[in-house]
Amino acid sequence: MLAPLLTLALLCAPSRAARDFVGEGLLAKGRPRMAAQRFSEVLQQRPDDADVRLARARAWADLGWCDKAIPEFEATRATDAWNADGALALSDCYADWWRRDDAMEVLEEALVLTDDGPGTRTRLAWEALMAGDRVTFDAQLEALMDDDPDSTASLLLLGAAAWADGDTVAMTWHLDALRALQPKVPKADLLEAWSWLELGEPAAAVDLLTGPARLVRRRLPEVSAWMMESNRRLGDERIVRNMLDQRTKEEEYPPARLALRLRARADLDGVASVRREAAALVAAWPMEPEAVATAWYVATLDGDAAAAQHLAERYALLVPPGRMPLQRLLPLVPSDTSSSPAPEHPR
What we know:
The radius of gyration is 23 Å and the shape is globular. The longest helix is centred in the last third of the chain and has 15 residues, at about 255-270. It is an all-alpha fold. The protein starts with a helix and ends in a 29-residue tail after the last helix. About 70% of the residues lie in helices and about 0% in strands.
């Protein structure tokens, strides 16, 4: 009797359309634009297919089109199609657009969907640290340390914690240990580059972010943006212009990356070319440190001391005391970029 009942249940159960393996193959090969087009074509025939909608949202997210992707992610979040890949892609969009709390919430979902995967836990910890949530960060780091204190994930987060604490000695030690296991870790490069920039050594940041993998890193939007910022602070206008004019896949830049681009344009094209955009950016994102820093930079170039002071006071509320000084945003003059021995972090 059981077998006929199971057969009847299967016949009566709602069926899900077959996955579109052509589109998914394009997405897996790193061709999100073609994948998005394919998924859109499939959705013309199957407009209610949640699997395809989710896949298209992932393609849009890969293209940096988060304004289009986020509503699609949210529409599929309560369906059977929702999966870890979707949750991770949505968290990236939320993080880019300074919705750190939403990013962490989705990453906590992804932890369940990935069965407590260390990669997802690492991403959750990173977002928590960027949001200033040290409690969540410490909890995730402790879980990773309990599992394997010498793993790449543990070493990356130990380096990130040291960076947040301003301990460059510990940061360097942990990141060197990490690179001994896994040489190419973009987030490790970012941490160390941020540290060099904070010390007023953009040449060291440039060397770190370019190196032998510079072409690969240019395809990573956040790393590429900081590569341009490092060259801007070094005063290398030729490279900055080249990177600024380089076509990117993003239709709209997230606030932090837009802030970096506006600084580059201010240096190359004059402050008048970005004055209105910088004001709009900080009005829209008043608590985003890079947006506030760019508004300060524009006010400083404009000679508006009162506005610069007001923005400096706001910036001081957003970063740890004494960290990431605004004066480091000013490009080095040519005499400062002359050849000299490679600097070292304070030991």
